Amino acid sequence: MIDKINSQFKKLQERLGPKAVWVIIGVVVIGVIILPMISFPQRAYWVRVIGFTGLYIILGLGLNVVVGFAGLLDLGYVAFYAIGAYTYGLLASGQFGIHISFWIVLPLAAILAALSGVLLGIPVLRMRGDYLAIVTLGFGEIIRILLNNLRGLTNGSQGIVGVDDPVFFGIEMTSGTHFYYMIFIVLPLVVFLVTRLNHSRLGRTWIALREDEDVAEMMGINTTAAKLYAFGTGAFIGGLGGAIFAAWQGSIFPGNFNLMVSINVICLIIIGGIGSIPGVIIGSVALITLPDILRQFSDYRMLLFGFLLIVMMIARPEGFIPSRRRKLEMHEETNPSLD
Amino acid sequence: MEFDWVRFAEQLVNGLTVGSFYALIALGYTMVYGVLTMINFAHGEIFMMGAYVGLYSLNRMVDSGLYESNPLLAIVITFIAGTAGAAITGVTVEKLAYRPLRRAARLAPLISAIGMSIFLQELIRLLPSMGESITGIKIGGTFLLPEGVRNAVVGFLEEFGGARVKTYPGVFSTEGFHLGEVYITYSRVIILGISIIVMIALSLLVKYSRMGKAMRAVAEDKDIAALMGINVNQVISKTFLIGSSLAGMAGVMMGMFYLQIRNTMGFIPGIKAFTAAVLGGIGNIPGAMLGGYTLGLAEAIGVQFLPAVYKDVVAFGLLVLILIFKPTGILSEALTEKKM
Hints:
heterodimer; A: two-stranded antiparallel ribbon; two-stranded antiparallel sheet; 6 strands; globular; disordered C terminus; B: mainly alpha; two-stranded antiparallel ribbon; 74% helix
């Protein structure tokens, strides 16, 4: 049955062709732009859900640099998201009475997150695969525990409330619509950044690193630098997302930054198609929008989510829209290998 | 402030108890990693299943009066039930979620395992409401199932699972003995004793039995093992069977010791046990035991100097340190190096 679904999927892809893809992209982009302008029932809810999907696409693109491009399995991505969020939360709220403009803190939060990404990267340089996964997971948990317990700094589990609204040319950004547009302006910039990186010399370095670290090193690639760049870039984007999240929510709590965030982001990358940028977008829609819509209907959404993850891995492990290179890799075991 | 030696010693005893749980669970991780090179992310949930099945069985023992008349037998039956429940879950999980992915890229089984972990947690939480909706199916205004069956099914599921915290009947007494000034309950001694006996038995099994030999061969190279006439699928199933049994046993003991269980209880011990497995050198059976106790003791010593909430920070901090200075874990072996 699974093969049948797969072949149907392939047929559909072939029938649509490249032209139709552009049409779909055009329709989606226009739809995203005009959605908050038209009025329809539950508008605020939809603006929020789609805004969140956009935020998760940003996070997904960031983690995709680490996991998809460089092949470093990072299960603690939420840490950088948290660092970004708390940077803005602490520098623009009543917590310490500091009120710095969002537009100054946004890059600062991203840079701070990138620095912590590099700092995490240094000790784990020698680790591979599952070891890396568990250490990054531990790092994410440590950050969450610290947020929960450094009461003097973060106000513990009571979190930081009353985070300042950003001001954009005199307009105070208060409504969900404002942040919706902010996210969908940042998003194309992030897409541009990661696309350019993917096709750059550094991007090819990452691919080499992912394919075979030892061979890459033999070829004269500085694997240390490549890994740190990957961690730094991923963390930078995560920090960006975190600062936007803090400004949007107006209040942040350690509970917002639990392991499920990391797992969601990893899953959406893999469901969408690892290493592929359109894949991240489809994955976010599948994993963030759909469960949120289902939330209204039933208690069973997480059960279904778990079940679908398993089915997906069995039916289509390369994801919905795999990058061409990855697609070949996913089926490599069926070819004779020199291993 | 003077150093409180009594409290410190008590913490060490506690570390050994907690370490026993970690070690038992870590064995499952390490064995599965050995044969499949995958993190069985759902292992914590298998442990949770053990605790739930154990509780159900123990409640039946109490209801039927067997616990009153013969407590030892009742507890042994509870252990067998919990262990079997976890073992069946583990083997089923492997068959459904991992076996089809045997040849897939490395991330696929990990995601499938994460999916399974979420699925099992939610399954336990939703069992009663699922039971109600399924038995409530009506055809033409009449229930499909007779009243008695419906009530029995819903009653069973409500007794078994649900979103609420469930409480074990107090099996272990708080009695104990003094060792110097340190008070040690018998329950801790029993837990430590059972764990060590089980682990020694497992080591002997893997080292000397035919099955153990087959397991090690599969861990070394599945294809070659198959060529040598080993039924690889069967060996993997058995590995899951053994690993899950140990987790189930840990689940029952943890339920009896801490009394409260819930559907999310597998997560933290699962993560910690995996840490323990890595600490000892993943894929290495004595390593997992050593890692479990090291982690348990390290946490116990850590909370002596830091507030108790930083226990997890100590655990992960230790892990990072060991991995920096000795990335193959405490007991490294050629196998671990190869697979890293």
